[in-house]
Specification:
Order of helices and strands: EHEHEHEHEHEEHEHHHHHH
Structural class: alpha/beta
Helix content: 40-55%
Largest sheet: 8 strands, mixed
Radius of gyration: 20 Å
Strand content: 5-15%
Number of strands: 8
Strand order of the largest sheet: 3-2-1-4-5-6-7-8
Number of helices: 12
Shape: globular
Length: 301
């Protein structure tokens, strides 16, 4: 059975080693933690990121839950509950009960569903919402946490991440993440839709000139951000759907973020979506990205 988090060795599992996951794993490793993951069935990119981060592969979930004191689930939102179920099975089979922190971009309802899965297996669950980029880039991410006992996550504060407890209710941390991303990623899709509509209307050059005159800061943000969106677009579709569900559950219209999900689906159809954050073509222009998107628009009657 995994040792309590306050005893040595302190072993933390990060599932999975994507852009954020491997950054968190590397930061924790640099602060003296033994960081493990499970690479069974993972892509070559994930394997490479795990290697770069110095993460140790346990080979199976059963072995992982027996070694880890704390599991950080960091992966696309559509896979969050599925991973919780897989880990719960491993806990049941081995008898190991490490603390499980769901750090995914999911709605409060989905967080509560994952919490039910982990609690049924007899383990402690922490709701967590990550805001900010991976460790090593700027000020680092903030991990907002909620749950009856968030001390295992709070112990990581200052270890490459900032941990902020915001109450005992499962779903509070997820709600904060959903509303924050509703602004940031929602704004990026709004920018994409506005510029694409202008292009299709034949007034893109004129609109860009006007933005340069009256919205220079916003235009600069569009030029820097939009060409990079396709690389993350497929995994952000699910996040927009979780945001829409969050809004629905509190009586706010989900329509905007349902539309945002459609924009990310469009971006995911471009050939640029095959890039990773490590291979993005930094020379690609706003106009080139819009042209690629336009080829995937539905025909007009």
């Amino acid at each position: 059975m995994a040792a309590p988090l306050d005893t040595e060795p302190k072993t933390i599992a990060v599932l999975m080693p994507g852009d954020m996951g491997h950054g968190v794993g590397r930061a924790l490793g640099e602060h003296g933690y033994d960081v493990v993951t499970c690479l069974a069935g993972r892509s070559d990119n994930s394997r490479n990121l795990a290697r770069v981060a110095g993460m140790r592969d346990t080979g199976s979930f059963n072995e992982l839950v027996q070694q880890a004191n704390l599991i950080l689930s960091i992966l696309p939102p559509a896979s969050a509950v599925g991973l919780a179920k897989d880990i719960a099975i491993a806990m049941t089979e081995t008898g190991a009960k490490p603390v499980y922190a769901d750090c995914n971009a999911i709605s409060p309802a989905t967080a509560r569903e994952a919490a039910g899965v982990i609690s049924k297996a007899g383990a402690q669950f922490i709701d967590c919402g990550i805001i900010g980029g991976a460790p090593g880039r700027g000020v680092g991410p903030r991990f907002y946490v909620s749950g009856v006992d968030t001390a295992p996550m709070e112990a990581l504060d200052g270890k490459g991440i900032k941990v902020v407890p915001i109450g005992e209710e499962i779903g509070r941390a997820s709600a904060l993440k959903m509303t924050y991303a509703g602004l940031t990623k929602g704004t990026w899709t709004l920018h994409t839709a506005v510029l694409l509509a202008a292009r299709q209307s034949g007034v893109l050059d004129e609109l860009l000139d006007e933005f340069a005159f009256s919205q220079a800061q916003t235009l600069a943000a569009m030029q820097a951000r939009l060409p990079r969106l396709p690389a993350d677009s497929a995994r952000w579709v699910g996040e927009m759907e979780e945001i829409a569900a969050t809004f629905t559950d509190v009586g706010v219209s989900p329509g905007f973020h349902e539309g945002a999900a459609e924009m990310f689906k469009l971006l995911a159809q471009t050939p640029f979506a095959e890039e990773t954050r490590q291979t993005i073509d930094a020379t690609r222009t706003l106009e080139e990205t819009l042209t690629a998107c336009a080829t995937h628009l539905p025909p007009i009657d």
